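Support request, please re-run this one:
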Amino acid sequence: MDTSLSLARGTAAPASANPSASATPGAGVVRIADDKAMLRAAADLTRDLVKPRPAVYWGDLIASMLLGYGALFVAATSDSTAVTVIAAIASVLGLYRGLSFIHEVSHMKHASVPNFRLGWNILVGVPMLTPSFMYEGVHNLHHAKTRYGTVEDPEYLPLALMKPWTLPLFIVVSALAPIALLIRFAILSPLSLLSPKLRTMVVERYSALAINPQFRRRAPEGEAKAYWNRLEIAASLWAITLIAITVTGVLPLRAFLTILGVASAFAVLNQVRTLVAHLWENDGETMTVTAQYLDTVNVPPPALLPALWAPVGLRYHALHHLLPGLPYHALGEAHRRISAELDAMSPYHKASYPGLPGLVSKIARSTMVRR
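Re-run finished. Output below.
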């Protein structure tokens, strides 16, 4: 679902302390030159890590969903408040981890992990009303070198340059995602078959996991369109069924509300992760790869909690922007190799942060600065 907000943009990006940065005349924006030594080291040191390991992918996904769905059942049926709360938390973490594999699905060559995309859609995408077409064909635009941080990037807003009230709004609105997805697939999907105009709107504006309100996705073609249609039909039928069995009492209201509550919780958790995935300091200018890296965030060990709120390799988000083809299970080793190879003055180390509170505080402070 397009979860974008119509938020006003700032007027200039903050200055950088990088000595290789140079000001763009008249733009008030600092441009950072590519650090060739860093880019070369990242590529050279990780050539043997590019092959995905299917057993890791399948084992991780299945374990995550067993935990997520099993704990959800307990939370929806237990008579103990304590058990319900503990089970709900476990369900949020399991389902959130399973859902995060949509990021891997959008990057992988599907032949490298046979049938993983299909399995993910069956286990996660359709049941959770986030089929893979919501991210495939969208997320790759975020990695395009000439699109990142511009108005053509579906996953970028200069949040650090906006008003302070936009940050809590950005988080709070995500709690409505489960209801929005139910409306998208149970109501808008069927109705759009009767109206070409509505169908165009649904495809362009309500079929992408994007935060940029100006983004409009293109309609799929060929094989991609056929795959999209199959997934959309399945998700639509499931959404209608879920509502129908709740209305008729087959699914108890408590269970339905528990499902919505857990889904809202991991939607908010993901939005918090999104808030700190970048520094959000670019105001539409094209950026070098190094500049994009420095606008992105790693939260490496020894911090432990990022494994929960930034799962499936997302704690190495900046490294992922350097090496988007690297499988999630290889990012930790890649980070260790690159960190050991590059000296302390390398820009590589400047994208690493100790944890969530400091990142939230940094972005919040940026919104307080008058620009």
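The first strand starts at residue 21 and ends at 24. The chain has 15 helices and two strands.
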